[in-house]
Specification:
The chain is mostly beta strands. The chain has a domain at 456-550: Immunoglobulin-like (Sandwich). 3% of the residues lie in helices and 47% in strands. It contains two helices and 37 strands. The chain has helices spanning 112-121, 300-304; strands at 7-9, 27-29, 35-41, 58-70, 73-80, 92-94, 102-106, 125-131, 137-146, 153-156, 159-162, 169-173, 186-193, 197-220, 226-237, 243-252, 273-274, 288-290, 328-330, 336-340, 343-347, 352-354, 358-371, 373-380, 386-390, 392-398, 412-420, 427-436, 444-449, 455-461, 483-485, 489-495, 501-507, 513-518, 523-525, 528-535, 540-550. Strands 3, 4, 6, 14, 15, 16, 19, 20, 21, 22, 23, 27 and 28 form a 13-stranded mixed sheet that branches. Strand 9 and strand 10 (153-156) form a beta hairpin. The longest helix has 10 residues, at 112-121. 32% of the residues are buried.
Amino acid sequence: MRIAHPRRIVLAAFAVLAAPVAAHAQDLTASAPVDVSVTVYRDPYRDQGGFDLDNLNGFALITETRRVVLTPGQHRLRFEGVADGIEPASAIVTGLPSGVIEKNRDAALLSPAALIDAAEAQQGRVLLSRTTPNGVTTRREGTIRSGADGGVVIETPDGIEALRCSGLQEAVSFEASRTGLSAKPTLSVLTRVNQRVEATVQLSYLARGFDWAADYVVNLSPDGKQLDVGGWITLANGNGTGFPNARVQIVAGRLNRDSGEIEPIDFGRPILARCWPRGSTSDTPDPVYIEQAYPLGFDPDQFSRGIYAAMPAPRVAMAESAMDKDIVVTGSRRAEQEDLGDLKLYRVPDRSTVASRQAKQVRLLDSLAVPVARIYDFDLFPNNTMDFAPMEVILRTQNDTANNLGIPLPSGRVSVFETAGSGATSRRLLAGETSLRDLAVNEETEFLLSGGAAVQIRQTTESRQRPDPPPPGIKGQTIRTGARFKMIDLVEITNAHPFPIQAEVSVYLSDNEELARADRDPERKNGRPIFRVTVPANESIEFRYQTVEYN
């Protein structure tokens, strides 16, 4: 007895030869956009790092200019190729003489299963075409008896058989179909005119699945006194719809926005066709399972990403969790900044293509010879003993025109490079990575880096039995009744560099604590006492401070 071994065949084409007929005579489609503007708002809660194109929680305001020709009567005007994540309630259409009666987001896209379901909805009537190897084509009218879920079964005058099981090239066409399906996400509106109108209309809507981030590259001069700062805006579009040659803007700042869930686009499902043997059941051939079927010209890679777009989507993304980690870089002029209420708007001066399923970069700024101070920084807590530890490095400047900056800087990642060696042996190396918060003009700007072993700090708590007198009281400080003096802290800072360094030590206090005594006069920064000291080359310094606690 022979044992049958199943063979699996993937069906690569499910042809639809006849286009669907419009739902009624007054249905019409607006032209493709003749002008597009894309304003991207970033996800205010996204962590620093790369984008996941499948999980973008920013959004965009998209404005498209299209042309339409309306004849007298009522029309269902279709705008094909809108973003998948469109929020229909936000859509505004201007330029129609009598306005909009209603609007709808058509969520069902062209797919093999959707076409089969649509055929079944019209009594399953189809035309089955078969072509032999020598090029002879025969056509048979048929009726679909079983849809995509259980395999496609068609009844023709020759009998009942499974689709694509004859071994010949096959195609199924629909003579007429009111499917309402489209190969692109579509927004439709209902309008009425009393005379023929040629109009230029503007469609504006909010759409999800966008985001942006800022990235900075900082080059530190060999003497450590100047920076060259380059900034990039990274735009991400997770939608299957691209926007070519668009005017692009981004908005910085946290926008208060509350929106509910929207109906997802129905991308359909592949169909599962099953074949059974023909001929004698005593001589059973290997069964053939057709696992998937796609419309003619359908890109399975795009389908697997949940999108089928008319415009080819470059396989480019910037994502830590995605397979593709390439990014498109556009070297344009720097973005132009202006205010948008309390938010900041950046206009990309050159038109750019916001392609589907892609992240790309456009230039934000180029600032040369930005003067900086190199500060060694550390935070201490009273009566907390710690051994020597490296101090952090801060590169500090001011965001103003006098320091060759002077534009609002959106938060983002920062890569800092320094030059090691000199002459032919010099190399530009990564010195550290940090982040930058949103900065206004004239605000202090700091790039925080990890420190090395050359500058270290230690804090020890002195015994109460030491004969040394306590440090002097803080000028202007009044110790209130009921204060309890805590133990004295000794701070030591060592500098192994062959040049003096500037150090800052902040003291974190609880709500019921105050700084009462210190060997050096402290200043205040961000509500905390801070000691600013100079440590000579190849030397160390020390100072003491004492706090009081109130019950």
